[in-house]
C-alpha cells in the first residue's frame, strides 16, 4: 500500500494480540511520532499491554518514535494529524476533535454502514472542518469480507462442527452473511440462509424455528439490525437449540443469553458482548486481517492530510484519498444511526 507517513504524527491505540500492530505499522511507515493509548480491559491491564507494545517496538527498532500511554487520547490530540477510531481512542469526543490541528483527518477502520453514533461526534467534526474517512474493505489489498467467512469456519471447528458435510444456518445481512455462505458452501457445508425480510418482524421463531432444529449449528452474524435474533422477545426460541443440540456461533447480532445457559454457545466470551459489537473480530484468525485493514485506513488518511497541508480543501482531500481505492466518504448530511451513505471512487452510493 506504499504507506509513507514521514513528517506526520499518528494518534491510535495499542491493544493485546493482533491489535498491538497499529502503532507499529505507523512507525514502520515512517511516522515522525506515534501516540499509542490504552486502558485496562478484560484482555489485560494497561501496564501489560504497554509492556507488550514496548517489546514489539524494541524488536522492530521503532521504540524511539512510539509513546505508549494510559492517558486519555485527548491529551495527545493537539499534536496529531491522523487519528484512528480504535477502541482505546474511542469515544472521539468534541473535546478531542476541537483540539486537533487544522489538517487533521480521522481514519475509521471500517466501512460507513458500520458507523455507531457513540463512537464519534460527527457534528463536532463538521463544525471543526475535520475530515472523516472510512476504509474500503472490499479492496483486493484488504479483503475483510473474505476473512469473515474464514472466521465463521474457525468458530465452527472450535465448536466441534466438522463443516464438511455439516448443516449450518446463517442469519445475517450481507456482506457478512454472503461471505460466510460462500466460503462454507465451497468447503462442502450445506448452508441454510435465514434471510430477514424488510422492516420489523414480530415472530422470528415462527418463521425459522423448525428449520433451526434440523441444523448442526446456527451462525448469527447480523450487523445492520438490532432486533432480537435468538431469545423470547421475537427471536428464535433458545429451547429449539437445546433440544436439537444445535450449536450457536455468535459473531454479531442481538441474542438474549438469559435463555442459553444450557445451550452450546461459541465462543463462550460472546455472552458479555453488547449489541452492535462483534464477539471476535477477524483478528481472531491472526494478525494479517488487522494489519491489512489498519494499513489501508492509515494510507487513506495519509493522502488526505498531505492534500490539506498543500492548501487543498476538504472536498479535494477527500477525492485524493478515494483515488487510492482504500478510502470511502462518510456523508454527514444523510447520516443517522441506521442510514450512512458512502461514495466509492466512481461516485456510486453504498447504503445499508
- Looking at the structure, the CATH topology of the largest domain is Rossmann fold
Low-confidence stretches: 336-352
Helix content: 25-40%
Note the total helix count.
10
- Total domain count: 2
Question: Briefly, what CATH class of the largest domain?
Answer: Alpha Beta
Characteristic key phrases:
31% helix; Rossmann fold; 5-stranded parallel beta sheet; alpha/beta; 352 residues; disordered C terminus; 7-stranded mixed beta sheet
Q: Describe it for me?
A:
This protein has about 350 residues and is of the alpha/beta class. The chain folds into two domains: about 200 residues, Rossmann fold (3-Layer(aba) Sandwich), CATH 3.40.50; about 100 residues, Rossmann fold (3-Layer(aba) Sandwich). The protein contains ten helices and 16 strands. The strands form four sheets. The chain has a seven-stranded mixed β-sheet. A five-stranded parallel β-sheet has the order 8-7-9-11-13, with helices on one face. Helix 6 links the parallel strand 7 and strand 8. Helix 5 packs across helix 6 and helix 9 runs antiparallel to helix 10. The two termini are about 25 Å apart.
